[in-house]
Amino acid sequence: MLKARDFGFRAKAVEKGEEALQCLNDEVKVVLLDLGLPGMSGFELLERLEKEHPGMPSVVLTAADRAEDAVRALKLGAYDYQTKPFDLEDLFLSLRHASKLREVQQENEELRASLSDAAPIGEMVAEAPVMVELLKKARKVAPIQSTVLLTGESGVGKGALARFIHASGGAPGSPFVTVSCPALPRELLESELFGHEKGAFTGAIKRRMGKIEAARGGTLFLDEIGDMPMDLQPKLLNVLQDREFQRVGGEERIKADFRLVAATNIDFEEKIRAGEFREDLFYRLNVIPLELPPLRERPEDVPALMEKILAGISKRRKCGVIRVESAAQNRLTAYRWPGNVREVENVLERASAFCDDRTIRVADLPPFIQGGDEPAASVALPVGLSGLTLEQLEVEAIRQTLAACEGNKAEAARRLGIAEKSVYNKMRRYGISLN
Ligand SMILES: Nc1ncnc2c1ncn2[C@@H]1O[C@H](COP(=O)(O)OP(=O)(O)OP(=O)(O)O)[C@@H](O)[C@H]1O
């Protein structure tokens, strides 16, 4: 004769509803009940279950094949209603589904709770003491409108911290405007920042407002400021000193009313020594320096970041909770994350896209995380290189690295050991596109 154990369950039998309520604990996954019970009826038991053990799934199995009873039981919270004689397979299928649903609901609740613990400070995760301190400082400086200089490796969260500062200190609804310095050639960057008058240069068919104007009353975030062309630097310095600027090709002096947050992943001292960055501008920018440590120096943040990122992915894909098996979790937390938080996002995005049952296992992780190597090993050049010129090799290295970084130029630059600006220049020079 088949037993509950054969269907993956262990049964605990009781005679009365009262007894059932008393013996319910975390070990019980689902309640199977009849309606005609001695003492408390099945309907009463369903009501008490709902009140005293909300979320505990139940399945009714009864001889009474009456539609109104079934409706009442389901209304009182039963997951399913089956009548005798019954099919054993069907019954256990129903019990399995009911207990699975509860599991998923519980995971969801836990995830929600852990997320609200993990991200108490705005949108940024900060579990590591060094990050908690950093965010405290950021919060203090947020309302005072002084220029902030954020430093840290690529993908470490400089952009996120800039937004955090803006959100913590800016007037509600005020603009947050980003300009990525290496993304544009010098002339376009100038006009992007300062705007231009009609006819200022070929193609300037009408007056255009620049990002400095667009950031009025809010925050201008200058990303990768270390790559700002040398001859544009005095113009920015003037704006910061005089709080005024002119559009390209214009005469009118316009008031500059914005808070500057600048970010860089380069060593300013070296740039200044090499004559590629003005020392006076550096001092103007370095009013409140905040350094974001690389993720490998704050491993406490990794699990919380993973939870937040996975919750974001399931929300975006409108799927259920994505879990990480403990062996995979161990590899992920042991990994050094040279590409920092952006790399965590990329790895989880990919792993969650290919995994089965919304569970990320070791096999779903990239080989360099499975094996504990650095990702550089994954950027292998093609075999049979003889016959390629140095230039072709360079093109190939850039192409493959960009592909490995999913088109993220800052990350590709870091892996290739060159400036982000050089990646843009080389892509332009060699006609490398992202597709
Ligand atoms: N502490 C954090 N909590 C939550 N998300 C974070 C955190 N830090 C970074 N992120 C997320 O990681 C991604 C990369 O961060 P961000 O773009 O801010 O890095 P960055 O240092 O500005 O990189 P780059 O130098 O390449 O511009 C973003 O999607 C960001 O929202």
Textual characterization of the structure:
This protein is α/β, with parallel strands linked by helices and 435 residues long. The chain has 4 domains: 4-117, 3-Layer(aba) Sandwich (Rossmann fold), CATH 3.40.50; 129-293, Rossmann fold (3-Layer(aba) Sandwich), CATH 3.40.50; 296-376, Helicase, Ruva Protein, domain 3; 383-430, Arc Repressor Mutant, subunit A (Orthogonal Bundle), CATH 1.10.10. It contains 18 helices and 12 strands. The strands form 4 sheets. It has a 5-stranded parallel β-sheet, sandwiched between helices. Adenosine-5'-triphosphate is lined by residues 124-126, 152, 154-160, 223, 263, 265, 305, 308, 341-342, 345, 410. Adenosine-5'-triphosphate binds at residues 124-126, 152, 154-160, 223, 263, 265, 305, 308, 341-342, 345, 410.
Could you give the count of β-strands?
A: 12
Instruction: List the secondary-structure elements in sequence, H or E.
Output: HEHEHEHHEHEHHEHEEEHHEHEHHEHHHH
CATH class of the largest domain: Alpha Beta
**What CATH architecture of the largest domain do you see?**
3-Layer(aba) Sandwich
Keywords: ATP-binding, Nucleotide-binding, Phosphoprotein, Transcription, Transcription regulation
Protein name: Sigma-54-dependent Fis family transcriptional regulator
InterPro entries: AAA+_ATPase, AAA_lid_NorR, CheY-like_superfamily, Homeodomain-like_sf, HTH_Fis, P-loop_NTPase, Sig_transdc_resp-reg_receiver, Sigma_54_int
Domain Response regulatory: 1-99
